[in-house]
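Exercise 7. Given the encoded structure of a 228-residue chain, write a plausible sequence.
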């Protein structure tokens, strides 16, 4: 039986194929409005597919790009002298071989976050800060109030070094997850936080990283600052 990840990738590939066929049909019928709406959905499908494929192989896009370049050089449509062509090909093949052996996985340590959330339930921690992109000052704070309300809040938009990091598309996806705009802050509130809601919070954090954003935007290892 295929791993769950491969099954998901196959499902998204089939969905993409179906949506592309629908778009082609609408274009043939001059129904450009429906084709436009479907193209927006196709963009989301491609984004989710890219994320899943990156889970399976973090360097898939780079490998595909290098493979295309190698095939192009092998055809030698530009008439490059053989000695230079052989050099280019060898350099590309060496780079491709290095990529295939390289392993620098993105890490969001679920166990560490689970332990921190449980510490907060036990009164041993007040919260933590996830530094998503330190150079751009993009972070997410998770704080527990005395009323047992858990607050998740992003960097105030006026404190971001690059405003595009919380653009309209990000905000729309975060609203689906449950975030709301409070002035310059995007915030989500979870009432009566307890151990029974820990897994839900982890799900929310995962959706932020992998659904609302593209996870490769963030640090390879997300730094956590704990508030005692």
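Solution.
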């Amino acid at each position: 039986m295929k791993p769950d990840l491969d099954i998901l990738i196959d499902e998204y590939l089939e969905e993409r194929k179906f949506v592309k066929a629908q778009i082609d049909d609408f274009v043939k019928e001059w129904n450009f409005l429906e084709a436009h709406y479907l193209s927006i959905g196709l963009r989301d499908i491609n984004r989710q597919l890219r994320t899943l494929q990156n889970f399976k192989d973090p360097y898939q896009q780079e490998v595909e790009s290098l493979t295309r370049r190698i095939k192009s050089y092998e055809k030698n449509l530009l008439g490059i002298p053989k000695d230079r062509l052989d050099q280019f090909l060898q350099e590309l093949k060496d780079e491709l071989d290095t990529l295939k052996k390289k392993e620098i996985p993105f890490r969001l340590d679920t166990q560490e976050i689970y332990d921190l959330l449980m510490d907060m339930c036990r009164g041993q921690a007040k919260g933590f800060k996830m530094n998503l992109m330190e150079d751009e000052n993009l972070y997410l704070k998770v704080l527990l109030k005395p009323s047992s309300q858990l607050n998740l809040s992003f960097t105030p938009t006026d404190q971001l070094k690059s405003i595009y990091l919380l653009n309209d598309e990000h905000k729309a996806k975060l609203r689906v997850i449950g975030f709301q705009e409070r002035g310059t802050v995007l915030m989500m509130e979870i009432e009566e936080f307890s151990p029974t809601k820990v897994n839900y919070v982890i799900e929310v954090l995962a959706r932020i990283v992998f659904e609302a954003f593209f996870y490769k935007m963030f640090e390879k290892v997300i730094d956590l600052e704990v508030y005692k």
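Remark. The chain has seven helices and six strands. Students should compare their own answers with the one above.
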